Amino acid sequence: MTLETVLLAVGPGDADRSDELADAVVEVAKPADATVVLAHVFTSSEYDDVLTRLEFDRSVDEIEPDEVARRHSTIIDLQGALDEHDIEYEIRGGVGEHGPTIVDLATSVEADRVVVGGRRRSPTGKAVFGSTAQEVLLSAPCPATFVRSDDN
């Protein structure tokens, strides 16, 4: 299978692991010369919070999620890492429940691989890996890579 498009999906909890996510996506995308789709997914309430925090003009009829994602610090950090490695990318924003929205984005961009992050879980927590990661790993239309963060 040829690897042409890799979806790197991040959310509000991923700011502290952008280095690990960048390393993982570079490792997958660079040898294949694949394009990376950097996607930031927000729930509706997270989206409203980000619009306020980033001081978007709410008098505008509609603010595109792609534009909000472009201005988000996690995406900006990841862009820097991809630029360093000369990897082509595009930026997408999504609004909805994290797991299903990531799966929908993977389908719409025809991703050949999805990369998502998560946290290490306690022995009890391992039974439920995290609803977003679990949803993506079980429902993605292509192979998915889980990048675990060591913090709790």
Automatic annotation (TrEMBL):
Annotated InterPro entries: Rossmann-like_a/b/a_fold (IPR014729), UspA (IPR006016)
Domain of life: Archaea
Domain UspA: 5-148
One Pfam family from the record: Usp
SUPFAM superfamilies according to UniProt: Adenine nucleotide alpha hydrolases-like
Family classification: Belongs to the universal stress protein A family.
Protein name per Swiss-Prot or TrEMBL: Universal stress protein
Natural source organism: Natronorubrum halalkaliphilum
